[in-house]
Amino acid sequence: MEKKVTKNDVVENIYNDTGFDITKKDIHIIVDKVFEEIKKALLNDQTVELRGFGTFEVRTRRGREKAHNPKTGEQVSVEVHGAAVFRPGKELKNSVWALRKK
């Protein structure tokens, strides 16, 4: 079973599941626009809440003086920085939680 779903897979699934008179190209544009809007909000330090799915937000990661480069083992310093994070909604979290029980 394939473990990865690409954006093209998402577009294909939407195209196959909808009965609308819409082209794959149009669906692709819409999907790209949704991701663009999420990205734009995050870059403006806004939270994106998609009810029933989850929340995208920017969290501040603290800097460290004694971090290590995992490839070389060299000691490096890391500045305070933002990180984009996703928190699943309750329904998604519970559904995913049950996956490994099977």
Structure description:
- The protein is α+β, with helices and mostly antiparallel strands and 102 residues long.
- It contains three helices and five strands, in the order ααβββββα.
- It has helices at residues 7-17, 24-43, 90-97, and strands at 48-50, 54-61, 64-68, 75-78, 81-88.
- The strands form two sheets. Strands 1-2-5 form a three-stranded antiparallel sheet. A two-stranded antiparallel ribbon has the order 3-4.
- Helix 1 (7-17) crosses helix 2.
Residue stretches low in confidence (pLDDT < 50, at least 5 long) are none
Radius of gyration: 19 Å
Number of beta-strand segments: 5
CA(first)-CA(last) distance: 16 Å
Tell me, rounded to a whole number, the average pLDDT: 91
**Inertia-based shape:** elongated
Query: Can you summarize the main beta sheet?
Result: 3 strands, antiparallel
Strand content bin:
25-35%
Structural class: alpha+beta
Number of helices: 3
Q: Please state how the strands of the largest beta sheet are arranged side by side.
A: 1-2-5
Helix content: 25-40%
Q: What is the N-to-C order of secondary-structure elements (H for helix, E for strand)?
A: HHEEEEEH
Describe how the helices and strands are arranged.
Blueprint: H1 7-17, H2 24-43, E1 48-50, E2 54-61, E3 64-68, E4 75-78, E5 81-88, H3 90-97
Antiparallel strand pairs: 1-2, 2-5, 3-4
Name a few traits of the molecule.
single chain, 102 residues, alpha+beta, three-stranded antiparallel beta sheet, two-stranded antiparallel sheet, 38% helix, elongated
